[in-house]
Every structure is written in C-alpha cells, then in structure tokens.
Amino acid sequence: MLGDFFGEGLLISEGGKWLKDRSAIQPSFACEQIQAFGESMAQQTVDHTSDWSLGETRDVLLDMQALTMKIAADTLLGVRLYEEVEAIHDPHEIIRRNFERRKENLLVAPRWVPTPWNRKVSSAIHSIRKIVDSLIATRRSTGQLGPDILSRLMSAQKNHAAGMTDEHLRNQAITFLFAGHETTASMLAWVWYLLAENPETGKRLYAELDSVLNGRLPTIADVPQLKFTEQIINETLRLYPSADAFSRSAIADCAVAGFRIPQGTTMVMSPWVMQRDEQFFDEPLAFRPERWTPDFQKNLDQSSWFAFGAGPRICIGKSFAMMEFVLIVATIASRYRLGLVPNQQIKPHASVTIRPGSSRQCNRSNLKH
Ligand code: HEM
Questions:
Q1: How many beta carbons lie within 10 A of that of residue 164, not counting itself?
Q2: Which of 10, 183, 239, 274 to mutate to test the pocket of ligand 1 (most atoms within 8 A of CB)?
Q3: Closest CA to 32 of 319, 255, 321, 275
Q4: Which residue is closest in CA terms to ligand 1's atom 17?
Q5: Has residue 256 been placed in a domain?
Q6: Domain span at residue 59?
Q7: Which of 9, 42, 163, 215 has the fewest Cβ atoms within 10 Å of its own Cβ atom?
Q8: Tens digits of per-residue pLDDT, 149-168?
C-alpha cells in the first residue's frame, strides 16, 4: 500500500537492491554523523516554537509534524523547508487517508482504476514528487556535498552507480522525508498528551531539565545526562509505538513457537500487542517511565519490546529518532508547559502511524509558561 508513494525507496525495496541501498546509506547514520545533526534539531525546535504564546490553544500534532519535517529535510536531505511544509500538508493527508481506506475496506477499487478518489490520490502523489524534485534541484544547484543522505546518493549517481536513476533518488528522498518525520511526530504528540495527563511525571522531568540545563538550550553532550527524559520516551514508545504492526513473508517452510509456517505465509508482528502484554510488563497499561531502570533494560526480552523492529531491517533511523526525541522534548519542556484542553476524548487512531485522535479536534493543547 505504501509502495505507490515510496516507490522502491529503502522501506519498500527487497533483496539485492535493498542491501545495496542500505549499505550505501548506513554510513549517514553512524554515531558521529548523527551527533552532527543535534544542533539543527535543537535550533529548529527553538525557531519553530518561538511564536507560541501564553494561554494559546494549538494543535500539537500539526506542530510536531511541521517541526519534524523541517528537521528531516535539513539533516537528511540538506535543504531548508519554508512554505513547502504547508504545500505538502494537504497532499500528504490524502495519501494518509488513502492508506486508511485501503487498510479498512477490501472493496476499494484498485489504484489503477480511474475513480475520482484514485485520481485525487495520483494528483497528491504527483504534487509531492514535484516538491521533492525541486528540493533535489535546489540541493544540486549548490554543488556542495555534506553528510546528508541526499549527498551520498547524489555522489553515487555521479559515479554512475548502476540503478541510481533520478526516479530512484527521488524515491529515497521521499522515503526519508516521510519515514523520518511521520513516526516521530506521532510519538511526540503522545509524549505531550501523557505529560499533561501525568503531572507528577512532568514535575520530575522539569526538575531534571532545571538541574542539567539550568535554562540553556540542550546540546548533544547533555543527552546522556537527560536520563529521565529518555525514560519518558521509552515508555511512550512502549504504549504508543508509532509503527503498530509490520509483516514478513516466510521465504521457506519453517516453524515458529511450534506452529508450522508454510513458505509464502505472511506473518504480522505487533509491538502494540506485545508491549501491552502483562507477561512482559507489570501494569502494562500504566504510564510508568520509572520502570526503565538500567536493570530493567538489561533484562528486557528483546522480542517483547521492538518499537523500531529487529533484525537486518531494523529501523535505520533508530538512533537519529532517539536523539531527536530527547533534544525536542528537553527544548520544549524547559520553555513551555502544555496542558490538555478539557473535555476531549483522546483515542489512538491507527493510520500509517498510531496517532492521537483526529488531530484537529482532539489534540489541542493549552500553553502555560
Ligand atoms: C518513532 C520513531 C520511529 C519508529 C517507531 C520507527 C519504526 C520503524 C520500524 C518498526 C521499522 C521496521 C519495519 C519492518 O521491519 O518492516 C522501520 C524501518 C525504517 N525506518 Fe523507522 N521508525 C522511526 C523513525 C525513523 C526515522 C527518524 C527515520 C529516518 C531518519 C526512519 C527511517 C526508516 C527507514 C528508511 C526504514 C526502512 C529500513 C530498511 O528496511 O532497511 N525511521 N522504522
């Protein structure tokens, strides 16, 4: 369902093509490369939130989407986004709704049938491709190469690497722009919701931020000290894993936990189910960041917590996302207090990611300094 949009980008490709691309892109996610992105993450957060004001009501999911998209574009593609964020919003919503419709309803006409809805989806995909093409053209026109993925792929293309067509370059750019912001935005919206619902956790977070940062902006050097901040993130990812389920096809007959799995069977794994199972977590539905002690993490069964997947296809952006979360949460929480507008029902909504309610009505927050 996502292939239409991502083409054969890293999330979708298989076999030799995937391995070649993963090996080419992996160095962009080496520890020292990711650390170089820290400054942009904190600074973009300050810029994005600079016009938030006391008592204002905002849609926090939309805010987190715009912020994480700007960070993904700057760090992964080496381009700054301005009015593009607005321009991407509507077509992206159509693509997201199309995914939901197809997931929920087997009777939707296949994408190649020219129904009015399918034409709308094609036009949305076309708009995003046009925007991304122009971002790539801007990046090319600077002639400079940096540590970002786009630079790596463009230099591979210059060296005439087989298969690196303009279309493939665009598919990878779309993959990283969207896989790199949609997941993180949903997850951050849940953090603000859980903090608003659990004031004691909030107090402990603010105390940690005061003692480590003392009013200044967080830097990458602060991340290891912001331990409780990270615990909040782990616990949020446990309760609301952005990717609630993903699948594998058996490439040969095999057995899993005593069940015979014939070749070609599709198996679905769900962090949402496993991470809310009392076999693995005490009081599984309670939000308890304090459970994430070093001992707890050491003894955690790796097959019960896998918000970022596992094995060779584990999320390539895992360390990037974890650092981004700490820096964004620390930057915002040391400047603002977000409270929930009363009388709302916030419910998880399974879209491409698990997001809070339907954003506009359900996730508005009241800002208090
Ligand atoms: C809350 C944050 C995130 C979560 C929960 C998450 C989750 C996942 C999961 C579960 C997979 C594996 C899917 C599978 O095995 O079929 C995956 C793959 C992937 N993720 Fe993430 N992700 C997050 C953030 C990011 C970020 C920030 C980026 C980009 C920087 C990213 C890029 C990707 C890509 C490209 C893949 C495909 C990797 C491959 O197949 O080689 N993700 N992600």
A1: 20
A2: 183
A3: 319
A4: 315
A5: no
A6: 3-243+275-368
A7: 215
A8: 888 888 877 776 656 788 98
Task: State how many domains the chain has.
Answer: 1
Kindly state whether residue 186 falls inside one of the protein's structural domains.
yes
- Ligand 1 cavity residues, CB under 6 Å: 10-11, 22, 76, 175-176, 179-180, 183-184, 187, 241-243, 246, 307-309, 313, 315-317, 320-321
- Widest CA span of the chain, in angstroms? 60
Whether 86 is in a domain gets the answer yes
Distance CA 338, CA 18 (A): 41
Q: What is the spatial distance between Cα 128 and Cα 181, in angstroms, rounded to a whole number?
A: 15
Q: Is residue 266 part of a domain?
A: no
pTM above 0.85, yes or no: yes
pLDDT tens for 296-321 read: 999 998 889 999 999 999 999 999 99
176 phi/psi in degrees, rounded to 5: -75, -35
Distance of CA 308 to the CA centre of its chain: 10
Place of tokens 């369902």: 1
From ligand 1's centre to the CA of 308, what distance in Å? 6
CATH number where 318 lies: 1.10.630.10
Nearest to 317 by CA among 243, 235, 221: 243
